[in-house]
Each structure stands twice: as C-alpha cells, then as structure tokens.
Amino acid sequence: MKKRVWASSPVFFATAAVMFAMACASWFWNHTVFLVEITAAAAAFVAAAASVTRFHSYVQTAVASAQTVLSGNQYQNLESFSLPVVLVGEGNDVIWANSAFQKVVCEKNRCFGEDIRKFIYPKTVEQILKSCGTNVSIDHRQFMVYGTSTDTVSILYFVDVTDYRELELEYRETRPAVALAYFDNREELARCTSSSEDTRVASQVEETLIQWAQGNMGGFLKKLSSGRFIIFTDERHVRKEMERRFPILDSIRSIRAGDHLTATVSVGIARGAASLKDAEEWSRSALDMALGRGGDQVAVKQENDTYEFFGGLSKGVERHDKVRTRVFAATISDDIKQSDLVLIMGHKYSDLDCMGASIGMWNVATKSLGRPAYIVVDRSQSLALPLVNMLQGKYPGKRIFITPQEALTKLPAKTLLIILDTHSPEFVENQELLEAVPHVVVIDHHRMMVHHIENALVFYHEPFASSTSEMVTELVQYIGDQTLTDAEAEALLAGIMLDTKSFVLKTGVRTFEAAAYLRRKGADTVRVKRLFSDSIEAYKAKYRIVSNARMYRSFAIASTDTEFPDIRISAAQAADELLSIQGVDASFVIYPAGGIINVSARSLGEVNVQLIMEKLGGGGHLTMAGAQLSNVTIEEAEKKLLAAIQQMPPITKQS
Hints:
655 residues; alpha/beta; 5 domains; 25 helices; 25 strands; elongated
C-alpha cells in the first residue's frame, strides 16, 4: 500500500523547486523554453499547494465530524485510551491514531496517511461497520475490530483477543476423540495359516496398533475382544494423522502371513462429538461405514453427519462362513411371511444383476413362501429388457412386472418393499414408492455410501460379494431351493456374469459355488450368453466410443457427445472393452443420457474407481462405478474427471 498524496507533499514541493531551478538555468540559452518550464513549475507548485490545503481541510472536517460522535472529554481521552483506536477518512486513509494503535498495530511507526486496508485485509471498513465485531489478523496477533461512522469519518476500535483465540484453539485441539479399530481379516488369516502363525500375526497387529495409539495418536489403546480395539486420543493427533493419511494402514498391511496373505485393519474415528457417549456411537458408525466399504481403511465421522475416508484401496477379503447368510435368510423369510404384499424394486436403469436378483427374490416370495409379489420396473429405462421378456414369456398368464405408478396403487398396510442392488435412496427405481412403504429390506453388494437407506428392517450388505445375484442365490438355497426353475436360475447366473465380467473380476470361492448351484438347477450358459447380445447398431456405437479414447497416465478416457438408443449399454461395454488395452488400469466413458452427463468407470481391481466417482458425487464398487453430472458439458465433465483422478493418492495400485 502506498501513502496518500498529503503524506508525500514534501516530495511534490521538492519536485516543483527542481523544475523552477531548471527553468532559471534555461533563461541563459532559450527564453521560449524558460517561459514553458517556469509556467510548468508554477503550475506544479500551485497544484501541490492546493492539494495540501484541500486535504488539510478534509482532515479538519473529518476530525470535526468525529468530535460530533464523541464528547469533548472522550475525544481528549482517545490518546490515552488503552485500546487501539484509529480514525479513517472516506478514502480509507488513516487520519489519526492514538498511541496504543501506533504501538500495537503500527509497531511504533507513524501510520498517518496509510491505507487502513493494509491492517485489516482481507476485510474492508464497510464490512466492519456492518458487523458486530470482525476478526482481523495482524502479524501474529488476533483482533476483534468494532466500528462506528459519521458522514466523513469512521472510528475503528481494535480489541486484542490473541490470548482468547489461543485458549479456544487449545480447547478444540484437546477435545477427546474415540477410535475403534478392527482386525477385519483375522478369520481369513486364521483359516489359511497354522495356529502358531496366526498367533504371531495377531500379536504383531496388536503391538503395531498399541505403538500407533501411544505414539502417533498420543493416547492409549484398550483391547475389547479378539480383533477389536478402542483408542482414546484428542483432536490434535487425529488432525495430524489425517494430514498424513493414516500410514498405520500401510504398517498393518506390511504384516504378512505366508507368501500371499497380508493383515488389514479398519478404523472408525469420531471427531467433534459433544460427549464421550456420542463419540463412542459415532466411532461405531464410522467403523461400520469403513467395513461396509470393503475394509482396510479409516472412516472419520465429523459434525453434520459427514464422513472422510482414507485408504480403501484393497480388494477386500471374501468371507467363507455362511452363518451370516443363514441368519439373514431366516429373518427375511419371517418378514415376507408376515406381509400381505411384497414389492421388489432395484435401481434406476436396471441391469442384469439388478433384474436377476429381483427374479430370484420373486421366486422366494411367491413360490416358496406363498405371498403375492411383483417386480417394480420402468421398462422404458431398463437395460435388462431381454431378461424381462424372457421370464414373462415363461409365465404368459401371470403378472410379474408392474410399473412404479401401478405399485403405488397396491399398498396394503402390511406391504414389504425389497430393495436390490442399491442402498442409496437417490438411486432406487422410484423414490416415492420407497417413502410410501415403511417396511423395507435392503440387499446389496456395493460399497457403503454415506447417504443410504436407514431404518430398514433388514440391511443385508456384503461388499465382498461379486454381485447381488450371488447374494440372492445363497438366500434361495436356504429359502426357495425346491422351487427355483431353470429360467430363474439363468436370470441369477446372468447377473453374476455381468458383474464379474464372465467370472474375471471380483470372483471368489462363493461366486463359483453359487454358479455351480445355478448350473445344477438347470441354468444353460448358452441361453445366458444370448441375454448379452447387442444389436448391430449398439455394437458399432460401442467401437465408435472406443476409437475416441485417449490415455491419461494409466487410465483410458473416452467420450461421446451424441445420445442414441442403448447408449448406456454401449458406454458400459466400451468401458469394459478399454480394459483390454495394454497398460490400462482403469477406464472411463463420458456420455450424455437423460439430459445429464454420465460417467461409466471400470477397473481390473488395482485401482478403486469408486473413490474417483465419489469425488464426482457418484459411487459404486471397486471395479465398477459411475456418476451423473448436471449442468455441465462433455468437456467440463472431462475436466472434473481429470481433477478427481489427480486428487487420488500417488499409489493407487495394490501391493
């Protein structure tokens, strides 16, 4: 900031004097030049004098205006007032300041004529006058600034609140925080290793967590049960670990059992809770969220029910124990029996997995448990019409599929709504139907999202499963084994094949067990393969999208600005096709559909595309995810995607 003209008036007078001296020197060699220069010097002198006179008048008017605000004694006492006080003119000039202001704010330097914005930046005088106290930082001091004004002058009072701010910061930094840690693949390691090796790994994990809790977290750890720990720390250490992105995950992952197995932990942390009781509840919710997203990560729950996630790059570990499935099968069976009507609904733009799982649950409800049931689907938006038509053809005289509008007219008091292949209220086929039915069962395999369906009677969520059809196939074995037909088995097998890319991605032992069961039930793989057939137009469209792809790092990105029928299918298949290119770890296809821009993301499992899509407001699974962007162009969507990729941690591949 520069000083005002009235503070620099000696410079102006000196300049005028130099011009006058130069004019006098020119008299001896050119009278014409002398007249020009002497006239310019006189004009400069008059202008400087007029400027100073004018500003002195301005200062006197401003001070007089300030005196109308304060009484005579008050004005005289401003100089000895303990708080810094400054008078500011209409041009933001410091007209006058008391000794406290010059000592504390100006650091004993004269600041008359300075621009006040130099001291209150980025605030303005207008903001201070409109507020009841404004926080301002000057060097390392914190001030609360209050102001009043007259027609020509503003009076600002600076109250030093540095000590209070430091005390407030210390209070916030020492607020207690609670963390729950869970050795999430302990059972898997115990099953695949000897007892001595299992004991060694378990003790090493516990020792690593103890050192982390006492060292990096500045707290202490208490073991609750086998594989579960509680940690007490404070806000300061949680914040520092968030900045470091929780290296404890890498430390635990470096603990190996055998040649191919590594230990992993999930941690749920409560941050900013009002009490220890709330902190413990928040940490449990955060741990459930971390486990629901596949484990091997830290979930931090903060105020306003928001979450921040760290890690989550591993593929997770499949659970071989089916006890949990049997418990859910019994619970869901009881809920269906107690209902007068069962409605089965998936997500928008239902695919083969969503529809296959729906057909499996329809078999359970109608044939095994004898309850009336319908599958709610909007055929105009479904991506699984061949499967819908195939099943309806098997039951020509039976009503199986109804529209969401028809479902809203069939709501007896004891209606049960089964949501499949999604747990987000924003992604269901019809949100109005979800809100109208109080009794809801959720079955899904996608990694947990922050905003999910709450208060469900049953929330059967298994992020380690390959597909929802796999989960429903296991339920069918405990509920509707005797009634499953070959057509329904083929529907379930189609869903598994879709999400595993024909048993290539995210397949575990239970995936092949489910497929083998469906094969025994009469599923014909040739007929299932035909459900994946495309029209020649869709096939050509897919390869047009692929031909436009470009590489960014190890990612293939393709886009199209043309919307055509079956574009969703073509875009998804194009994303799958791009994974076959050498050096591609993940693929993204950007396309318009339904008036918005969509992004379809795929990976081979070494890159978690769910984390990337979440930054765009979407979600999904580790190997398959998507997002929808409103009010953007294809080019803008691509820029957002690149920004989301750049925000990913440097190492996105699995070790």
